[in-house]
Amino acid sequence: MKAEPEIDHSGMEFGIYTLADLRSDPHTGISISARQRLNEIIEAAKMADEAGLDVFGVGEHHRLDYAVSSPQMVLSSISQVTKRIKLTSAATIFNTVDPVRLFEDFATLDLLSNGRAEIMAGRGAYIESFPLFGYNLDNCDDLFEENIHLFRELSAHERVTWTGRFRSEFLDAEISPRPVQKSIPLWIGVQESLESAARAGRFGTGLALVVFEGDPIRFKPLVDRYRLSAYEAGHAPADLKVGVTGHVYIAETTQKARDEFYPYHINYWGNDISRADFERLSGDETALFVGSSQQIIEKILRQYELFGHQRFMAQLDMGGMPFHKVAENIERLATEIAPAVRKAIQK
Fold first, then answer.
1. What is d(CA 312, CA 35) in angstroms, rounded to the nearest whole number?
2. Nearest CA among 144, 170, 151, 60 for reference residue 104
3. Angstrom distance (rounded) from CA 282 to CA 303
């Protein structure tokens, strides 16, 4: 019988990500333009970089209620006004993307940012990208699998020969440009699917857990399946990375955080969430990171005990939240939460 795979418990990166939703402020009813939303995203990235956070992510949607359809374009702009922060999609919809064009775009981003580009692959919460780009929704899982495989080939080799089901074949094609990094780090986002967690392990990519609500212990089987699958595929434990992504709102006290965040939470998810339901969703033992800095620290450390993860990514700007609130949360995450968590982990 094989021994259990080892777990890497060294350090933790902290970052933020945005999905760039365009919703009106629930208090004022004021909506901002896509142009202003993009400007605020770039400003948030600058603040995160200056505050010492490690990663900034931008999501992909193809709807009028979101401002970003091309994360690589936004991240390229961010690369020119930041110095050290890693730049990742959050996530790229891999079922409906041309892997060759995607690799070229992110290799270019890697060159522009001097080796800071990453990709998080996801299957998307919406389906409009399938008809938009001419793909059949029935092939959703097979498209994802094949595109991940092709992207990894493109990243590993300067010349590639390819034959697949969904993309035209090519013979000994030059794959240009080449990134600064030996290969562009790739993560697979997983919310509930054990099969997706196993796929991430089999490919040896990072695992990005989408942790929004409930007891975080319910996500542990995903991490266990990921590590076991990676071990069985022969990937070195030191090369495996687990990240947690979640909704975060921080205030001086937990009650103040809940009072302030509730209107944005229901504005983002829908008005069918009662205040009593929200109180349960944001309770001490849950995965929703709403509270005082100390409570957020305790929640992250509890999850660290469960997952042994190396990255924590916070979605701060949702539901029409004004930018000054986002800025306050970036500052608290960088100066109050990240140092305390890192210190506790190193003990």
1. 28
2. 151
3. 15
Cα 189 from Cα 330, distance rounded (Å): 23
pLDDT of residue 11: 79
CA distance 220 to 131: 35
Using CA atoms, how far apart are residues 330 and 17, in angstroms rounded to an integer? 11
At residue 124 the predicted structure's pLDDT band, cuts being 50, 70 and 90, is: confident
Nearest partner of 137 among 147, 149, 128, judged by Cα: 128
Q: What is the pTM of this model?
A: 0.95
- Domain annotation for the chain: domains and CATH numbers: 13-346 (3.20.20.30)
Q: Could you tell me if residue 133 is left (phi over 0), alpha (psi between -120 and 50 degrees) or otherwise beta?
A: alpha
The string of DSSP letters for 134-170 reads T--GGGHHHHHHHHHHHHHHHHH-SEEEE--SSS--E
Closest CA to 153 of 139, 167, 140: 167
Q: Is residue 8 a contact partner of residue 238, using CB atoms and an 8 Å limit?
A: yes
By the 8 A CB rule, do 93 and 124 touch?
A: yes
